[in-house]
Design goal:
Blueprint: E1 4-6, E2 9-14, E3 18-23, H1 34-49, E4 55-60, E5 64-67, H2 79-84, H3 97-117, E6 121-126, E7 129-131, H4 133-140, E8 143-147, E9 151-153, H5 167-175, H6 177-185, E10 189-191, H7 192-198, E11 203-205, H8 210-222, H9 226-239, H10 244-258, H11 262-272
Parallel strand pairs: 3-4, 4-6, 5-7, 6-8, 7-9, 8-11
Antiparallel strand pairs: 1-2, 2-3, 9-10
Helix pairs in contact: 1-3, 3-4, 4-5, 5-6, 9-10
């Protein structure tokens, strides 16, 4: 059930355990829908529990990575979208305050939590417009590579909306309070190089080389010791919220697993024998 078509994206498992997720609704600039977000959460569960998948790469088809939510009336899914969905249809939410609160917590924010909680490495290959929901999804990933011609922004204030999918938190974590205030309140949308200068992405690539670069990074990371990599990812995110002593205790606990894994013995042997390690 891992590979195949989902609502608004397709998933394929490539060599070296690379799970490639491609948003494939270019006619709406890959704008997200509720079924798409719920299917993304389902895909994250499958990837988490499938040992064949080691690294996840997200990218978009056409001119966009993901250009926000589909606010033109199809957010809850048209017949074609629902036909592809792996998760069951739910009733359309009403527009009162509690309904908005519930759908944000259980769908829009939940998909970013699911990506962030995945202990396998995630990479966003930002090929084009990456707005609001798309930006938050990219910021939920561990690595971001942007096309030089990509456009990144939240700009929710242009429509009187808030970055309610937890985009404000992710921006503060990545670029700090002062830059987030400037970025959100001034409704900024920046290109790939400006995003790199701000600290929103790790690197910039030419459009034709973007996916190749993201897959090369994924291959590099998939060759590493997977148990130690996954534990280290969790330890780094935890450290952001813990005291020095708590972070030390957390990584010591995780080391009790990684130091006694066969990969650690292989790593030491490869170092002493002056060769590349062959991790399981």
């Amino acid at each position: 059930m891992l590979e195949g078509q989902y609502a608004g994206f397709r998933l394929e498992l490539r060599d070296r355990g690379i799970a490639l997720i491609t948003f494939d609704a270019p006619e709406r600039l890959n704008a997200s829908t509720a079924p798409m977000k719920r299917d993304l959460m389902e895909a994250m569960i499958q990837i988490q529990l499938d040992d064949a998948a080691r690294v996840v790469v997200f990218t978009g088809e056409g001119r966009a990575f993901m250009a926000g939510d589909n606010v033109g009336g199809g957010y809850w899914g048209d017949a074609e979208t629902l036909k592809k969905a792996r998760t069951p249809k739910i009733g359309k939410s009403s527009h009162d305050g509690m309904a908005s609160y519930s759908s944000l917590r259980q769908i829009s924010q939940a998909v970013n939590r699911a990506i962030r909680d995945l202990d396998k490495i995630t990479i966003a290959a930002i090929n084009g417009s990456c707005i609001q929901t798309g930006l938050s999804l990219a910021l939920s990933c561990d690595f971001r590579i942007a096309s030089r011609t990509a456009k990144l922004g939240s700009a929710t204030l242009r429509m009187g909306y808030l970055p309610d999918e937890n985009g404000h938190f992710l921006l503060v974590q990545h670029i700090g309070v002062a830059k987030t205030l400037d970025f959100l309140l001034r409704k900024r949308i920046v290109d790939g190089q400006a995003a790199l200068d701000l600290g929103l992405v790790h690197e910039v690539a030419e459009p034709e080389a973007l996916l190749e670069r993201a897959l090369a990074l994924a291959s590099e990371l998939s060759d590493g010791p997977q148990i130690a990599t996954r534990l280290l990812k969790r330890a780094i995110y935890s450290a952001a919220d813990l005291s020095f002593a708590q972070a030390g205790d957390d990584i010591a606990t995780k080391t009790g697993i990684s130091d006694h894994h066969p990969d650690a013995k292989e790593g030491v042997a490869a170092f002493l024998e002056k060769r590349q390690p062959r991790f399981k």
